Amino acid sequence: DAGVIQSPRHEVTEMGQEVTLRCKPISGHNSLFWYRQTMMRGLELLIYFNNNVPIDDSGMPEDRFSAKMPNASFSTLKIQPSEPRDSAVYFCASSLNPIGTGRYNSPLHFGNGTRLTVT
Amino acid sequence: LAKTTQPISMDSYEGQEVNITCSHNNIATNDYITWYQQFPSQGPRFIIQGYKTKVTNEVASLFIPADRKSSTLSLPRVSLSDTAVYYCLVGDNVQAGTALIFGKGTTLSVSS
Fold first, then answer.
1. What pLDDT score does B18 carry?
2. Cβ <8 Å between B30 and A110
3. What is the mean pLDDT of residues B29-36?
4. pLDDT higher than 50, residue B96
5. Cβ contact B90:B24 at 8 Å
6. B43 and A93: CB-CB below 8 Å?
7. What confidence tier does A101 reach under pLDDT thresholds 50, 70, 90?
8. Do you find a cis peptide bond into A61, omega within 30 degrees of 0?
9. How far is A79 from chain B (nearest CA, A)?
10. Quick check: B107 pLDDT over 50?
11. CA of A56, closest CA in chain B: separation in Å?
12. What share of chain B is helix, strand, coil (3-state, %, to 5)?
């Protein structure tokens, strides 16, 4: 089991540029989550998908943020345009949850994150 | 909204048992209690999960009293490598908005 794979590991970009973060969940998992972590705000849930469908994106800070999950093995989080305040570590996590129950009590498996620096 | 309260930090020495308590007064009937561990530059890692009484695995034990308004993560004989942030999560119901929310966690520092 390769675990959740995120790329790139580090990203440095200039303000105004587009940033795309990538995630490959664990094979067979049906739920995928994007989190952002900063010292000030801790771990924040941005958006999550169930069976490739976005369920709740209320944590996405602004319209500059968007996420997609075109298939069960791939998801992207895009920031366009990026701003210095977007600098953070972005984590992707996946889990296997009972279908159709709306309950997410299965353990989350996190990737090692993407450290984003926007200058 | 199920909310958790944990101590911000704890200190310990190698070989000691460490108990981290999490308060969750508004826990709902169907809520599970889940603990994660996070090392610097890594994502959180699942440690243990329980619903009531006691759960034990190779890493830790989780004690949950009958009223389920709190839980205690017990780490036996800690080592330097147990220095990390520990998070307690409660709730699993998306519709109730209680799922998947991490608090500030407890920073455990283990010294020799």
1. 98
2. no
3. 88
4. no
5. yes
6. yes
7. low
8. no
9. 21
10. yes
11. 9
12. 5, 45, 50
Reply yes or no on whether the pLDDT at B53 is more than 70: yes
Residues 36-65 of A with CB under 8 A from B: 42-43, 45, 48, 55-56
Residues of B in contact with A35 (CB under 8 A): 102
Are A102 and B93 within 8 A, CB to CB?
yes
The three-state (H, E, C) secondary structure of A57-115, written as one string: CCCCCCCCEEEEEEECCEEEEEECCCCHHHCEEEEEEEECCCCCCCECCCCCEECCCEE
Residue B83 CB-half CA count within 13 A: 11
Q: Which of B46, B95, B104 sits opposite A108 (nearest CB)?
A: B46
pLDDT tens digits, residue range A56-92?
888 898 899 999 999 999 999 999 999 999 999 999 9
What does the DSSP 8-state code read for residue B76?
Answer: S
Distance CA B90, CA B96 (A): 12
